[in-house]
From TrEMBL, chain A:
Highest taxon listed in the record's lineage: Eukaryota
Protein's recorded name: Cell cycle control protein
Keyword Transmembrane appears in the UniProt entry: yes
Primary site of residence: membrane
Family: Belongs to the CDC50/LEM3 family.
Pfam families: CDC50
Lineage: Eukaryota, Metazoa, Chordata, Craniata, Vertebrata
Alphabetical GO biological process terms: phospholipid translocation
PANTHER family (alphabetical): CELL CYCLE CONTROL PROTEIN 50, CELL CYCLE CONTROL PROTEIN 50B
GO annotations of cellular component type: endoplasmic reticulum; Golgi apparatus; plasma membrane
Keywords, comma-separated and alphabetical: Membrane, Transmembrane, Transmembrane helix
Transmembrane segments: 28-54, 311-332
Subcellular location: Membrane
Keyword Transmembrane helix: yes
UniProtKB/TrEMBL annotation, chain B:
Protein name: Phospholipid-transporting ATPase
EC number: 7.6.2.1
UniProt organism field: Maylandia zebra
Annotated compartments: Cell membrane; Early endosome; Endoplasmic reticulum membrane; Membrane
Entry membrane topology: Multi-pass membrane protein
Active site residues per record: D390 (4-aspartylphosphate intermediate)
Length: 340, 1097
């Protein structure tokens, strides 16, 4: 008896796991599966690619550069002067209806918002409405955490300090009369940024929270006065501010400025006609060989216009189809042993 | 050891005479009266300390040990750089994994040390009885001092090394078993020191003995020394004096760790690491250079929107460059992940369980399975190119059966059925002495010799360390002479007439592999002093009268070619004077403190001369189960099998035939003492000629390796004496290096047989092959103490849990119960382990390359500012959580070919030979794949971001969205790539692969769904959810994953015809199929072979 017990103690467990005999699925990618699979995937991709390309082509885009680095361009005088609020205007004509909803972007190039030091130069606690960070901004904001008189800067840091401050108004000239096109600045930033990630301190009026602090050096107005027309669009939840604070991934980028308000004449978009954009030119870009532009675009289900996706799908889809044809030929010609 | 014992009156060694290399012990701490100054000698106490740490030094010592590992140190440096320098990623990203690894290792080592502490305590606190001033005092074992007199009861283990002073048995003997020391469970007899039978309590004596030395087996002989760890048996109690205590006991001295063996895979990993380190450094250098080139352009260095701080402006340019370089190093350091080491270790540790769990390795006879002593070499089992096997006990069962004997040239074969009066029966003898019997007197002398000349004990059957001896004693029993046992130096024999004969055992001249014989000196009742000697023919024949040799030699040779183990038996009358001379010589040599072995040997050699040859015995050693199939499978797997044995050439040769290592068509090349003897030539010249001839045959004339069809099989036979000539002759002959020639011949032969090998020569051969060109992977397998040297020398040492004790098992890397298990161990487990770990290593490097490459590429688009592409959480978790489990599961469970298939088709083993999956070719493939994937991930998304407005509400994505999209593609692609490689999907694989992906998605939601108070920046807040709300992001993720995997899918589909199935068919059609397994009984071939040799003789 004892002997038997000791035997069972020593004997390895005879389970599927210990004996490496777990039931297993052994997928075999045979021609019978792969060729039809490739054809199917290829066709599906080609279908998606065509749809994407058609959609992308249907998106209307209007890009207008207003850097003013060449003489004779509308804003060349502004780009050379250092006067604040320099005005210039751009004219453009639409021959057909610009389908709505129309989005109004500004674009910057050779502008490195993805610079590491730049990106770190903000204080998320401050922007979350934490009053203690108002008086002592994070050192990561340096050199924009205290001004020359050692007063804390709110909002601190390079990103806030370099906020884009050109402003635009769009007018349409119909039969000699110019009427303003209403621009809607609501909901241009991420919903979560506006509602959760960025918070104003719960002090009313908001101005009091900023006592003892100074506005960022490059700003004309303090944060609590960014939008005089809408009190709820001030402080850290100002939509333009939020858009700016979401750093762009690449040095050439565009950010959403406004939407064309779809009301009245503009319900279907921008009708054909002559338009003028009046620009308040503040933002210097020529020092670093940058460029500024205005982009009007409408969007589809896939977002803004982007031919890359459509082309990629078409290429890879047709690659799959070609491959399956090649494989079919290969298989037909040299019947592989295990396919017999 | 042993001891110079001086009792009260004869104090020969005092304090002034103490020699180096010996120690003086005062029994019971009573000083010798003749010696005025009693200097209490200082010895270590009896505490056994196997633990490495104490509570106090654990942390510093363990940390120091861990950071001595180069990898850990590297990660520590990276961590420190991150702490000190302003770097892009927080120190947490590399500190956390490092902390994790260090903690886990520390906990593991701490636990192991705690176990050791516990075991130590158990031993050290054990209560022992010490006789002190006539009283029995209970003491803790650790308090024993050298010189204490201890009392040990039956079934207790000895607390330290003792000299036996008194036994409760009348004859002054005691029995011990050394099972816990070397696994030999037979009872060994030890004797009290003469003249100490009197009152131990008043004994006044000193002992002069050797300083402690670890050689367990040299000293097991001295019959007065009881070793710590051995157990007292069949004896009520003994008294002994402690001579070696604590860490100076033989057991403690033997517990020093073996040298670490490193596998080739580890070397490959290190080579690859070096490449990746170069990639890392060059990436950092490129980025640093570009950064300063880029900054030199006007307006780029410090655009107005990104002003530097005062501190930055003031720092030295070169210091800045240096810190930038370090920052880049830190940014890219994830290319060499900490987790790879952890995963590799875990894979090896967990994977090795499959060997010990395998029920095919379980042997119901010994009720044990395989044993894994190291898990570092699992994959090496799949790389073996040379197998060195012992013969006895490994190829053969070491289960001896007496077959026949020859007395004075007459052959006696035992037959049960037709037994004559005495149970003897004479079969066909050689031609000249047909149908004759030796005289009855000679028969009886021969049988008495068999009964007396051995070290067998009688205890419920016969027990002996050598199975040959048991077979011989049993053989004698069949012929009517029964050995009854040894009692107080008297051997009793029951003879044919049922009378008990008594012989006084005077001396045993022990067997040793160099002398290859053993003798006993006995005195019969009538007062005759006889020496009986048995041993290998080569060691007996020169020592007997030559006229007797010829008639016996024929028998011996015939028996040897039949595959039997032969021993010759001789005797010699000793006159009283002769005996006295021998006796004093032996005593003197035994008491010698220095060179005892040599002195004993000299006396032995002197005694064992001028003997009379009586006869010879033939004992059959059966082949191990499935020995032939195993050898055939190994050869089919392209492994060269070398048999290294101490046995005779003929016996070994026939075993080789039986194992099908030599086949009928194998041409044998012999390089032995026999072939070297040719008239009129010096042996050196003959050796030279033969070597050149064989070299020409095997190396120069051999068809090029690729056309392996119909090439002649060569077998090579060499013996120990010739081998040492070959190995030592290079200085003499500078034209040809014999060693090289020899090696080349050997390597071109399918099998090599080295016979008459001393243990050290075995290791020499292994070393020679190991260090030859291409440094092939060697494996040694053996079961006895004489195989330990080669087991330790080879890359992989395998011990067989055989009958010759446990020494081989203790020193091996893996131990298996039977030889037949080697096939599955190599072809099954070894193959799978290699494929698994090779894939693991390549995959790890690949996945980190395509992880970090986008981050590197991103530097070109962010002004080389060290901006990380991925969030810190992703950087940290990538290797720990998102991609580590699938590859671990793969590396534990993958069976790209089923085990049955691997065992059936030994040729599959060749596919992975020479480290095939970890050479530069595959490494380059994986690296290029990693680069391709990295490029696809980065630039695919880059093209997409030419317009960052990717949502249908017109909102734009920022840099963290960019990184998250790339990271999502990355995680999915590398996981699916592994899924494509997985050919064996168990539920665990499914669970882990899909689970990892699900976990990634879940984690991303969770990580981005909460404002984390401990984070300085909420970078990923809702980034992942926002990404998923964009159709374009979905589409780009799908298309880029497919694009990345497309080449891989194509490769898998098109590679298929070269898969295992096709290979199998190829082999079967070309080589006429693998030979069907035959039974392991003695094959026909061997019979014909032995007949052939009969006619020759």
């Amino acid at each position: 008896m004892v002997k038997q017990e000791s035997e069972s103690a020593n004997r390895p467990d005879n389970t599927a796991f210990t004996q490496q005999r777990l039931p297993a699925w052994q997928p075999i990618l045979s021609a019978g599966i792969v060729i039809p699979g490739f054809v199917l995937i290829g066709l599906a991709f080609i279908g998606i690619g065509v749809a994407l390309l058609v959609t992308s082509r249907s998106i209307q885009v209007l890009e207008l550069d207003y850097t003013g680095d060449s003489n004779g361009s509308p804003c060349s005088s502004c780009s050379q002067s250092v006067i604040a609020n320099c005005k210039c205007s751009l004219n453009f004509t639409l021959t057909t209806l610009f389908q709505g909803p129309v989005f109004f972007y500004y674009g910057l190039s050779n502008y490195f918002q993805n610079y590491r030091r730049y990106g770190a130069s903000k204080d998320d606690n401050q922007l979350y409405g934490d009053l203690s960070s108002f008086t002592s901004p994070s050192s990561s904001c340096s050199p924009y955490n205290y001004d020359s008189s050692k007063k804390p800067i709110v909002p601190c840091g390079s990103i806030a300090n370099s906020m884009f401050n050109d402003t635009f108004t769009l007018t349409r000239t119909v039969n000699g009369t110019t009427n303003n096109v209403t621009l809607d600045g609501k909901g241009i930033a991420w919903w979560t940024d506006y509602n959760i990630k960025y918070r104003n301190p719960s002090v009313t009026p908001l101005k009091n929270a900023f006592n003892g602090t100074v506005k960022p050096i490059n700003w004309a107005k303090p944060a609590y006065e960014l939008d005089a027309s809408d009190p709820s669009n001030n402080g850290f939840v100002n939509q333009d501010f939020l858009v700016w604070m979401r750093r762009a991934a690449l040095p050439n980028f565009r950010k959403l400025y406004r939407r064309i308000d779809a009301s009245g004449d503009y319900q279907k978009g921008l009708p054909a006609g002559n338009y003028t954009i009046d620009i308040t030119y503040n933002y210097p870009v020529r020092a670093f060989n940058g460029a500024k532009k205005i982009v009007f675009s409408n969007v589809s289900w896939m977002g803004g216009s982007n031919e890359f996706l459509g082309i990629a799908y078409l290429v890879i889809g047709s690659l799959c189809v070609v491959m399956s044809v090649v494989m079919l030929i290969v298989y037909a010609k040299f019947k592989f042993p295990d396919e017999e | 050891l042993s001891s110079l014992f001086t009792t009260t009156d004869r104090c020969s060694f005092g304090g002034e005479d103490r020699r180096v290399g010996s120690r003086t012990i005062y029994v019971g701490h009573r000083p010798c009266p003749a010696n005025e100054v009693f200097i209490p000698p200082k010895f270590c106490d009896n505490r056994i300390v196997s633990s490495k740490y104490t509570v106090w030094n654990f942390l510093p010592k363990n940390l120091f040990e861990q950071f001595r590992r180069i990898a850990n140190f590297y990660f520590l440096i990276i961590f420190l750089v991150q702490v000190i320098v302003d770097t892009p990623t927080s120190p947490v990203t590399s500190g956390l994994p490092l902390f994790f690894v260090i903690t886990v290792t520390a906990i593991k080592q701490g636990y192991e040390d705690w176990l050791r502490h516990k075991a130590d305590n158990e031993v050290n606190k054990y209560r022992v009885t010490v006789l002190e001033d006539g009283r029995r005092i209970q003491k803790e074992s650790e308090k024993i001092k050298v010189g204490d007199v201890l009392e040990v009861e039956e079934d207790e283990t000895f607390p330290c090394d003792l000299i036996l002073l008194q036994s409760s048995r009348d004859d002054g003997t005691c029995f011990v078993t050394t099972a816990s020391l070397d696994g030999e469970s037979n009872h060994k007899t030890h004797y009290t020191v003469p003249d100490t039978e009197r009152d131990v309590e008043s004994l006044n004596a000193t002992i002069e003995c050797e300083q402690p030395q670890p050689d367990l087996y040299k000293s097991l002989g001295p019959e007065n020394l009881l070793l710590k760890g051995a157990t007292l048996k069949n004896t009520q109690s003994i008294c002994g004096v402690a001579v070696y205590t604590g860490m100076e006991t033989k057991m403690a001295l033997n517990y020093q760790g073996k040298s670490q063996k490193r596998s080739v895979v580890e070397k490959s990993i290190n080579a690859f690491l070096l490449v990746y380190l170069c990639i890392l450094v060059s990436k950092a250098l490129v980025c640093t250079t570009l950064k300063y080139v880029w900054q030199s352009k006007p307006g780029q260095d410090e655009p107005w929107y990104n002003e530097k701080t005062l501190k930055e402006k003031e720092t030295n340019l070169y210091l800045n460059m240096f810190t930038d370089f370090l920052s880049f190093m830190v940014l890219f350091n994830f290319i060499i992940p900490v987790s790879m080491y952890v995963t590799v270790e875990m894979q090896k540790f967990l994977g090795s369980f499959f060997i010990s769990w395998d029920k095919d390795f379980f042997d119901s006879e010994i009720e044990e399975g395989a044993l894994v002593n190291t898990s570092d070499l699992n994959e090496e089992l799949g790389q073996v190119e040379y197998v060195f096997t012992d013969k006895t006990g490994t190829l053969t069962q070491n289960n001896m059966e007496f077959i026949e004997c020859c007395i004075d040239g007459h052959q006696y074969k035992y037959r049960d059925a037709s037994s004559e009066v005495d149970g003897f029966c004479v079969t066909d003898g050689p031609m000249n002495t047909v149908q004759q019997k030796a005289g009855r007197e000679r028969e009886e002398l021969f049988l008495r010799a068999l009964c007396l000349c051995h070290t067998v004990q009688v205890k419920e059957g016969f027990i002996a360390s050598s199975p040959d001896e048991i077979a011989l004693v049993q053989g004698a029993m069949r012929y009517g002479f029964t050995f009854l046992g040894l009692e107080s130096k008297t051997m009793k024999i029951l003879n044919r007439t049922n009378d008990v004969e008594m012989y006084e055992l005077l001396h045993v001249l022990n067997f040793d592999p160099v002398r290859r014989r053993m003798s006993v000196i006995v005195r019969s009742i009538s007062g005759e002093t006889l020496l009986f000697c048995k041993g290998a023919d080569s060691s007996i024949f020169p020592r007997v009268k030559q006229e007797e040799v010829e008639k016996i030699r024929m028998h011996v040779e015939r028996n040897a070619t039949d595959g039997y183990r032969t021993l010759c038996v001789a005797y010699k009358h000793l006159t009283a004077e002769e005996y006295d001379q021998v006796d004093s010589g032996l005593r003197e040599a035994r008491l010698a403190l220095q060179d005892r072995e040599e002195k004993l040997m000299a006396v032995y050699n002197q005694v064992e001369t001028g003997m009379n040859l009586i006869g010879a015995t033939a004992v059959e050693d059966r082949l191990q189960e499935e020995a032939a199939e195993t050898m055939e499978a190994l050869q089919g797997a392209g492994i060269k099998v070398w048999v290294l044995t101490g046995d005779k050439m003929e016996t070994a040769k026939s075993t080789c035939y039986a194992c099908r290592l030599f086949k009928r068509n194998t041409e044998l090349l012999e390089l032995t003492v026999r072939t070297l003897e040719s008239p009129g030539k010096r042996r050196e010249d003959r050796l030279h000629d033969l070597l050149l001839e064989y070299h020409k045959k095997t190396v120069q004339d051999a068809p090029p390796a690729k056309t392996c069809v119909a090439s002649q099989d060569y077998g090579f036979i060499v013996d120990g004496a010739t081998l040492s000539m070959v190995l030592n002759s290079s200085s003499e002959n500078n034209l040809h290096d014999y060693k090289d020639l020899f090696l080349q011949i050997c390597q071109n032969c399918t099998s090599v047989l080295c016979c008459r090998m001393a243990p050290l020569q075995k290791a020499q051969i292994v070393k020679m092959v190991k260090n030859s060109k291409g440094s092939p992977i060697t494996l040694s397998i053996g079961d006895g103490a004489n195989d330990v040297s080669m087991i330790l020398e080879a890359h992989v040492g395998i011990g067989i849990k055989g009958k010759e004790g446990r020494q081989a098992v203790r020193n091996s890397d893996y131990a298996i119960p039977k030889l037949k298990h080697l096939k599955k161990l190599l072809l099954g487990h070894g193959h799978l382990y290699y494929v698994r770990i090779a894939h693991l290593v390549q995959y790890f490097f690949y996945k980190n390359l395509c992880f970090i490459l986008p981050q590197f590429l991103y530097q070109f688009f962010c002004g080389c500012s060290q901006q990380p592409l991925y969030d810190a959480a992703y950087l940290t978790m990538y290797n720990i959580c998102f991609t580590s489990m699938p590859i671990l599961a793969y590396s534990l469970f993958e069976q790209h070919i089923s085990i049955e298939m691997l065992l059936e088709n030994a040729t599959l083993y060749r596919q992975i030979g020479k480290n095939a999956m970890l050479r530069w070719g595959p490494f380059l493939y994986w690296t290029l794949l990693g680069v391709f994937h990295g490029l696809v991930f980065f630039f695919g998304v880059w093209f997409l971001f030419s317009n960052p407005a990717l949502q249908d509400n017109g909102q734009a994505f920022g840099n963290w969205s960019y990184g998250t999209i790339v990271f999502t593609i990355l995680v999915f692609t590398v996981t699916l790539k592994l899924a494509l490689d997985t050919r064996h999907w168990t539920w665990i694989n499914h669970f882990v692969i899909w689970g990892s992906l699900a976990f990634y998605v879940f984690f991303s939601f969770f990580w981005g769904g909460v404002i984390w108070p401990f984070l300085r920046q909420q970078r990923l807040y809702f980034v992942f959810a926002n990404m998923l709300s964009s159709v374009s992001a979905w589409l780009v993720i799908i298309v880029l994953i497919l694009l990345s995997l497309l080449p891989e899918i194509l490769y898998v589909v098109l590679r298929k015809p070269r898969g295992p199935y096709a290979r199998q068919k190829l082999v079967q059609s070309s080589a006429g199929g693998i030979q069907s397994p035959r039974s392991s009984a003695r094959p026909l071939l061997m019979r014909t072979f032995s007949d052939e040799s009969n006619t020759v003789s």
